[in-house]
Automatic annotation (TrEMBL):
Organism: Actinacidiphila rubida
GO annotation, biological process: methylation
All copies of domain Methyltransferase type, residue ranges: 38-132
Protein name (record): Methyltransferase domain-containing protein
A Pfam family matched in the record: Methyltransf_11
Amino acid sequence: MGVYTEQVVPRVINVACGLGEAGRLRERVCAGLAGEVVEIGFGSGHNVPYYPAAVTGVDAVEPSDVGWKLAARRLEGARVPVRRSGLDGQRLPFPDGGHDAALSTWTLCTIPDADAALRELRRVLKPGGTLHFVEHGLAPDPSVRGWQYRLEPLQKRLFGGCHLTRPVADMLRAAGFTLAEVDIFYEKGAPKALGADTLGVAVSP
């Protein structure tokens, strides 16, 4: 990875992921988390203030050292233990069925092999465990999708490989999850092509 990817992108994402509707959506997606949680794409810890009291611990999976350093202030105020426990969401260093829940916020769009990451999350979740997610994804409207496909190459270069056109709900089903809740919408204040989100809860068999 180059200097831009290693040093600049984590700082840009740290700022961008704290703007607009992000806080409200993080609060919404974290609601209902409980027990031992694995969070992939922990980033700079924007979700930390929204962990419910029922969470007993978080295994944070984050490849960026810069992102982890930027999380320091939020970690100081964490109400639950947060451990940096892995670097790659595609290869989780945890035993089968050891976690009660998982969390992914705007992460599956950047993981190179998102299908592998979903299979790994399913593996480490207990039967009936839940994956709480909010992700950039394919827009519901064909006209917006056209713009997403046009903009995606630039988006990937500027934001660490971020895809705009992944069909999140379909990917979850293909990985063996059952969708208990799903909401596809456009973020308020964001261009539709960049702000098409899929938010919900998926259940592991």
